[in-house]
Amino acid sequence: MVMDVALKKALIEDCAKVITAHADELTSLDQAIGDGDHGVNMKRGFESLLADADALAARPLPDMLKAIGTQLVMKVGGASGPLYGTLFLSLAKEIGEAPNTENARAAFASAIEAVKARGKSEVGQKTMLDVLAPVLAAWDNRAGLAAHLSETARQAADATIPMKAIRGRASFLGDRSIGHMDPGARSSSLLIATIAKHFGA
Ligand code: ADP
Ligand code: MG
Fold first, then answer.
1. 183 C-alpha vs ligand 1 centroid, how far in Å?
2. Domain count of the chain?
3. How far is the CA of 137 from the centre of ligand 1 (A)?
4. What is the number of other CB atoms lying within 10 angstroms of the CB of residue 28?
5. Using a 6 Å cutoff on CB, does residue 121 contact ligand 1?
6. What is the pLDDT of residues 117-172, one digit of tens each?
7. What is the spatial distance between Cα 41 and Cα 156, in angstroms, rounded to a whole number?
8. Distance 59 CA to ligand 2 centre (A)
9. Atom 13 in ligand 1: which residue has the minimum CA distance?
10. Burial readout 137-171 (b: 16 or more C-beta within 10 A, e: otherwise)
């Protein structure tokens, strides 16, 4: 599908809006099992995308994703900045200017592999990957795909609650990381639900 400037701008604006609206929640999740900066980190990064939304949206999709990835690496910081940055930079490499669902899915699959390599992490370690990977696995050819992916992301974030963290700051807590949702899993589910809304969810 062709992603026109208005759609690209709306995606950036809505992602920034949802992260800002949930910044306090992301912060409290990170206070429970990390250092309490995930909300602030993500808000800073997405506010900088919002400030640049017109210029970003005017670029072809791969260029826009590359610029977003670069900006997230620079502005978000922490562990999640380089990881979200890697996700978008890798998407930028694989996605076409007018992707169909197969191209988008393949690009997302490569991007998840890039995050794993960057984070030296795998599924099941209580991180953002525990939302990203189930969403990829649920991506099929069904009618109503966007709503399905959005719901999958929500459930996958919930499913990080009983997990024990093996990567990231939360892993320092060992068993005490059990019983809390992973902040990066929550921010990933918020972003996926927001993006899915523009594709029919
Ligand atoms: P920091 O942990 O440096 O304070 P943030 O609080 O912004 O950074 O981000 C924490 C989130 O980053 C975690 O909730 C987790 O989802 C994700 N994360 C941390 N380390 C890794 C990793 N090695 N692989 C994948 N995701 C990770
Ligand atoms: Mg943190």
1. 8
2. 1
3. 22
4. 14
5. yes
6. 999 999 999 999 999 999 999 999 999 999 999 999 999 999 999 999 999 999 99
7. 22
8. 31
9. 184
10. ebbeeeeebbbbbbbbbbebbebbeebbbebbbbb
Residues in the chain, pLDDT under 50: none
pTM flag (> 0.85): yes
CA distance linking residue 58 with residue 180, whole number of Å: 40
What is the rounded distance in angstroms from the CA atom of residue 74 to the CA atom of residue 141?
Answer: 36
Whose atoms come closest to the Cα of 165: which ligand? Answer: 1
Q: Which two tokens stand for residue 92?
A: 């930028």
Query: Which residue CA neighbors atom 21 of ligand 1 most closely?
Result: 168
Say which DSSP state 167 is in: S
| Cβ of 116 below 6 Å from ligand 1 | no
Confirm if 180 and 126 have CB atoms less than 8 A apart: no
Say how far residue 192 (Cα) sits from the centre of its chain.
7
Expressed as residue numbers, the domain containing 90 is: 5-199
Which CATH number goes with the domain that contains 136? 1.25.40.340
Token couple for 137? 């696995």
Q: Hey, CA dihedral for 12, 18, 24, 25, is it positive or negative?
A: negative
